[in-house]
Amino acid sequence: QVQLVESGGAVVQAGDSLRLSCAATGRTFSSLAMGWFRQAPGKRREFVAAVDAGGGRTRYTDSVKGRFTISRDNAKNTVNLQMTSLKPEDTAAYYCAARFYGLSSSGTDYDYWGQGTQVTVSP
Q1: Which residue in 10, 20, 54, 114 is a FRET match for 76, CA 20 to 30 A apart?
Q2: 74-91 pLDDT tens trace
Q3: Across the chain, what does the average pLDDT equal?
Q4: How many angstroms from the chain centroid is the CA of residue 120?
């Protein structure tokens, strides 16, 4: 089993930057593809970014391309989401997720989920 613990959520203003982190337990982290998803009030959970097990391939939803960067440190069992130029529409609970197989933008493909960390962007 894998447990994911997220941190870094905050209340910020439009244009600010914020870095989210996700710490994973277990000895299989280097074999897991990792993703970030978000869910705003009254909305469905949506894909944000993903990185493959080796960190060599990434994928982003169109609305965050050029603003968000996903990265991982397999030696420390962590994955990060660096967010810049934040917009009010980025306001959501952000979730870290993991799966054993390859890069995916589909939430149903992921096996493990964190508890979520709230990001609020004021206009």
Answers
A1: 10
A2: 999 999 999 999 999 999
A3: 96
A4: 15
For 7, 29, 45, 106, the CA distances from 121, given in Å and listed in that order, are 16, 31, 18, 25
Cα gap 6→63, rounded to integer Å: 22
Which pLDDT score, from 0 to 100, does residue 101 have? 83
d(CA 26, CA 12): 32
3-state SS, one letter per residue, for the chain? CCCEEEECCCEEECCCCEEEEEEECCCCHHHCEEEEEEECCCCCCEEEEEECCCCCCEEECHHHCCCEEEEEECCCCEEEEEECCCCHHHCEEEEEEEECCCCCCCHHHCCEECCCEEEEEEC
